[in-house]
Specification:
six-stranded antiparallel sheet; about 30% strand
């Protein structure tokens, strides 16, 4: 009898609208994404998303292969037994299971080939030491090497949304939900720290979109890449096999974006929330749904913003009031106090200097490592 008994998400990303550049279509393109799998298992399945696309997407061929093996053996990813994977506009699909023996810690790479003109509208930019991919012009999806002269790196993850593994009953997923702070490095550093600390029963799943807000979203092409509002995003992104815990670090964009129509027609002052608006949004959109899913919920406080280009004391007042609720509300199972971990003890409205990336909103790499350490300290005691 197999020791494996359930599906658990081993890697995951959000899906948003990609930034609207001059070119929104690609043809004769290979995408390749390497992923570390932290569980033992004997099957993989792949979630592909065209959630924000307005046209069907055809993946002409798709493969998964174990990295760093002497013999390169790409296995085809099929949908209902077919090599072509059609993702309808506005939908997500789940591939057929791929039989493959995986050892915890192994890296695999997923390669996708698009023969025809393809609307590249569904993807999300993520960064960190575990998050990068490549694209190449031409069909190289089943080849071990991509030609150097036709290949470039990318941090935009198109269409590939989640990878599940059929694994042991003890294994589970922790979901990190948020905006650009979470789309950047700390979930990767968390995954590394958890692995290095000897935990072998937990995966870190990222659900983050830069610029996204709890209460509102942009429908103009200038800011559409900032994604869907929390009420819309959350139920979609919480479809995570084997999820048991959730960290929510979200809300700073609601506070810093509004500047008035005279400055930016898309950012009226009417969008500016009070702390009670943010609290109600988290309660109604996040906590209520997460509890229905049986998840343990951790709040994550919002980071300092002193020095950011739209900083004002009244914005910081909203942030601090919201943070106090995140720290003390009994509706959470606990709080990861990112604010206290990264702020300057002598000037708590600002980052400690070495934790600031320089824009006074996003942490430095050292800051992201400190965020990951705060999670390990609180959750993995």
């Amino acid at each position: 009898m197999s020791q494996f008994s359930k599906w658990v998400a081993a890697w995951g990303n959000a899906t948003s609208i990609t930034d609207r550049k001059e070119a929104t279509y690609a043809k004769d393109l290979t995408l390749r994404y390497p992923v570390k799998i932290v569980f033992n298992g004997d099957k993989l399945r792949f979630h592909f998303s065209n959630l924000t696309g307005t046209e069907d997407v055809k993946i002409s061929r798709a493969f998964v292969a174990k990295c760093d093996e002497e013999k390169y053996n790409p296995l085809e990813i099929l949908l209902e037994g077919k090599a072509q994977l059609i993702i309808p506009a506005g939908k997500e699909i789940l591939s057929d299971p791929v039989q493959v023996q995986i050892q915890a810690g192994q890296r695999v790479e997923v390669s996708l080939y698009f023969e025809d003109f393809t609307q590249m509208n569904a993807g999300t930019v993520i960064t960190g030491p575990l998050s990068s991919g490549k694209y190449a012009y031409g069909n190289f999806a089943d080849k071990k090497e991509l030609p150097l002269d036709l290949t470039r790196n990318t941090n935009t993850f198109y269409f590939l949304n989640t990878i599940d593994i059929y694994t042991e009953e003890k294994n589970q997923a922790l979901v990190c939900f948020g905006d650009s702070i979470t789309a950047q490095s700390w979930p990767d550093y968390l995954a590394i720290k958890v692995w290095e600390s000897g935990f072998r029963d937990i995966s870190i799943i990222r659900r983050a979109v830069s610029g996204t807000r709890i209460l509102r979203q942009y429908d103009c092409i200038t800011y559409q890449a900032y994604g869907l509002k929390g009420q819309t995003r959350f139920p979609i992104e919480m479809k995570v096999a084997g999820a048991s815990q959730l960290i929510i670090q979200h809300g700073i964009n609601d506070i810093i974006h509004p500047v008035g129509k005279e400055v930016n027609v898309f950012r009226p002052w009417s969008d500016m929330p009070q702390s009670q608006d943010l609290i109600k949004g988290v309660q109604d959109f996040y906590i209520s749904h997460a509890k229905k899913l049986g998840l343990k919920i951790w709040s994550g406080t919002l980071l300092p913003i002193y020095g950011w280009r739209t900083y004002q004391p009244m914005r910081d007042k909203v942030r601090n009031e919201f943070n106090e609720w995140l720290r003390n509300s009994k509706e959470f199972d606990g709080c990861i106090d990112f604010d206290r971990a990264l702020r300057d003890p002598k000037n708590p409205q600002a980052f400690e200097k070495s934790f600031d990336s320089g824009d006074h909103l996003h942490p430095s790499e050292k800051g992201y490592q400190t965020m990951a350490a705060a999670v390990v300290k609180e959750i993995f005691k």
